[in-house]
């Protein structure tokens, strides 16, 4: 139950609608019982040929009860559903606010398909918490108490039978099935997340699967996962139907007992025969409120596990206590004995990394693939929490990541491009940029052939790798920032275009702190310092001339690069 405490707190915000829905729900239930009880009494009374005035009064009460029931039922549905949808909206907003600070690091812990299933499916499942879990037992108890109080005026023994029926159909049977439901709901939700993950992966990797002729194997895996999910859903459905059947059987048995007991009381002279039909109709009608209790266990477990899965995503989030952070000049950045491993991984990607990036300096971080260069840049961007990062003397844990991003120009290895136009994607960096400024930025990165109104497909599918990188660089040319963090920004660009882009980049970042992660060693002579990394550690730091004279790790990398691109190699 503790998993749903967050939902219960959101319900308190809608207490007005909840109170109205409960009031009209009880009114609708009571009038329904009164309507059918009066019908039974009317039939019995009519058989005794009473005065016409008596029948007229009973018929008038019937009509009034019918109108009251219809109106109260409409009001109950209106207020209960309005409360439900408002609670669902608040839940989405609350969950998003807790999820947002975890991005983009959340993808290191959860696969995108599973995360999508939680954000969409699990949140949608929680819309049933009030309407199918909290609301039915309240209505059931209140309507039953009113009915039992009414029946007690005719027979205490029949009232006692209804109390037993309330306990049996409202609590004992649903409680037993709720206990059994625990493993079913957990299994179904896990299979649903697995299916969503496999479908997402199939669509994302469709091209590669097609190229390597593995689409059939992946489809077979997807069909197997789908079959397991369908089997779990079928088993869960049969369990829910079994619950409903047992609950219905119990209500019918109770009604038969009421009929038999009433007949005995009439025969014994303890009850007038005219009230027998009234008691039977009352019993049949009041147990209609027990029908939602039959499906309550399924919705309860579904809501509980959905809430737990959502909490698993954001359970580590706490209300941050960030300091105000504004950069008025190029910052100094320090990494002091930084050790980092990705979530759920034992192998550290960085080990005791200590390096300083002076204010206003231009630094290149180089090294072999997998040496930890990109991870270090991501830690500086606060994409993952890590100790030992300081920006302008402020510990990284005390800095709002958005404050860093807002005051930085960033180009990552993978940059996202939205469906729209070139103009739309450039305006991500600066919504106030003019067309002339955007055209100039395109010219500076060698994309003069592109027009601002040219269409960009989803994820930039109609752009080459080099065009994507240059378009990402054009974004940072549209705004000034005191910090530049660039991860392999020109890896897919030819050498001549790369030199032109870097010249414009250094001109724009003349007064900023610039950190360039690169596997290319050409053109680094202009850097103030070069940081060389191997296997997650910093092995050398110095200027280009110092490192070449030292003939260490950087010199060895340079020799390898030169040997690869000798004229003889190019001819071959």
Automatic annotation (TrEMBL):
Topology within the bilayer: Multi-pass membrane protein
Positions of transmembrane segments: 20-41, 133-154, 160-179, 244-267, 273-300
Name of the encoding gene: cydC
CDD domains per the UniProt record, alphabetical: ABC_6TM_CydC, ABCC_MRP_Like
Species for this entry: Exiguobacterium antarcticum
A Pfam family that the UniProt record links to this protein: ABC_membrane
PROSITE patterns in alphabetical order: ABC_TM1F, ABC_TRANSPORTER_1, ABC_TRANSPORTER_2
Localization of this protein: Cell membrane
Domain spans labelled ABC transporter: 333-560
Domain ABC transmembrane type-1, residue spans: 19-288
Record bears the keyword ATP-binding: yes
Top-level taxon of the source organism: Bacteria
Name used for this protein in its record: Thiol reductant ABC exporter subunit CydC
UniProt keywords, alphabetically: ATP-binding, Membrane, Nucleotide-binding, Transmembrane, Transmembrane helix
């Amino acid at each position: 139950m503790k998993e749903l405490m967050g939902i219960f707190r959101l319900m308190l915000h809608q207490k007005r609608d909840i109170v109205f829905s409960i009031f009209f729900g009880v009114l609708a239930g009571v009038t329904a019982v009164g309507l059918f009880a009066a019908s039974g009494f009317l039939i019995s009374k009519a058989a005794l040929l009473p005065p016409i005035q008596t029948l007229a009064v009973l018929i008038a009460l019937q009509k009034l009860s019918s109108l009251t029931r219809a109106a109260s039922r409409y009001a109950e549905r209106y207020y209960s559903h309005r409360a439900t949808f408002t609670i669902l909206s608040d839940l989405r907003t609350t969950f998003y606010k807790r999820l947002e600070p975890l991005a983009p690091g959340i993808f290191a812990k959860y696969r995108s398909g599973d995360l999508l299933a939680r954000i969409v499916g699990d949140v949608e499942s929680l819309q049933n918490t009030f309407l199918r879990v909290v609301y039915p037992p309240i209505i059931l108890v209140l309507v039953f108490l009113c009915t039992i109080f009414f029946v007690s005026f005719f027979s205490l023994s029949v009232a006692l039978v209804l109390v037993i029926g309330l306990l049996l159909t409202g609590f004992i049977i649903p409680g037993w099935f709720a206990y059994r439901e625990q493993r079913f709901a957990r299994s179904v939700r896990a299979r649903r997340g697995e299916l969503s993950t496999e479908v997402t992966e199939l669509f994302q990797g469709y091209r590669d699967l097609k190229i390597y002729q593995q689409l059939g194997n992946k489809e077979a895996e997807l069909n197997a996962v789908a079959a397991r999910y369908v089997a779990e859903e079928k088993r869960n459905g049969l369990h829910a139907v079994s619950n409903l059947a047992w609950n219905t059987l119990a209500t019918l048995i109770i009604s038969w007992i009421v009929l038999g007991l009433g007949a005995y009381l009439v025969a014994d002279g303890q009850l007038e025969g005219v009230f027998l039909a009234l008691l039977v109709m009352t019993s049949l009608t009041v147990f209609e409120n027990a029908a939602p209790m039959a499906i309550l266990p399924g919705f309860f477990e579904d809501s509980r596990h959905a809430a737990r899965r959502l909490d698993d995503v954001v359970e580590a989030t706490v209300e941050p206590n960030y300091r105000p952070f504004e950069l008025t000049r190029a910052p100094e950045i320090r990494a002091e004995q930084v050790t980092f491993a990705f979530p759920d991984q034992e192998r550290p990607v960085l080990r005791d990394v200590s390096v300083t990036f002076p204010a206003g300096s231009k630094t290149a971080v180089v090294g072999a693939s997998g040496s930890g260069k990109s991870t270090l840049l991501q830690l500086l961007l606060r994409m993952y929490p890590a100790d030992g990062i300081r920006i302008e003397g402020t510990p990284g844990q005390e800095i709002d990541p958005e404050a860093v991003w807002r005051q930085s120009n960033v180009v990552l290895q993978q940059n996202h491009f939205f469906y729209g136009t070139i103009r739309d994607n450039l305006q991500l960096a600066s919504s106030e940029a003019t067309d002339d400024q955007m055209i100039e930025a395109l010219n500076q990165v060698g994309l003069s052939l592109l027009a601002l109104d040219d269409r960009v497909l989803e994820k930039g599918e109609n752009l080459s790798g080099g065009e994507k990188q240059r378009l990402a660089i054009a974004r940072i040319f549209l705004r000034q920032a005191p910090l530049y963090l660039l991860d392999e920004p020109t890896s897919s660009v030819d050498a001549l275009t790369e030199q032109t882009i870097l010249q414009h980049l250094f001109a724009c970042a003349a007064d900023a702190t610039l950190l360039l992660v690169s596997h290319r060693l050409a053109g680094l002579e202009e850097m103030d310092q070069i940081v060389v990394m191997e296997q997650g550690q910093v092995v050398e730091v110095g200027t280009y001339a110092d490192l070449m004279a030292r003939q260490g790790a950087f010199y060895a990398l340079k020799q390898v690069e030169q040997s690869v691109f000798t004229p003889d190699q190019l001819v071959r």
